[in-house]
Amino acid sequence: PTHIFLQPILGTGNKILSSYETQLLENPQNTNLSKYYEEYMRMQLLEIKNCNTYDLSNILDDFHEPVYFDNGHMFSNGNKFIAKSIYEKILPFIFNTPESNQMTVKTNMD
Asked: pTM here?
């Protein structure tokens, strides 16, 4: 199956922002994408049939380290955390196929 992940961006969820992240969000030169995010998710992603959609926009709520490099990109700690979350979501699908019986998965996620 197809899997679509809605990633967190600066301003989505309830993450307590660092001073740097707060500056990014409040900078009038930066576009605050979060105000369009919920509408986009509702109108676009949830309408797609025959695929699995995952909303990860709140996944950083309990993450206390700075993660955002800019409004939509993360430092390596955030990227690693998101990658691990995606891995955990798709792993059951990987091992639920005939091909998976012959696969060995090695990961360096921890």
From this structure: 0.73
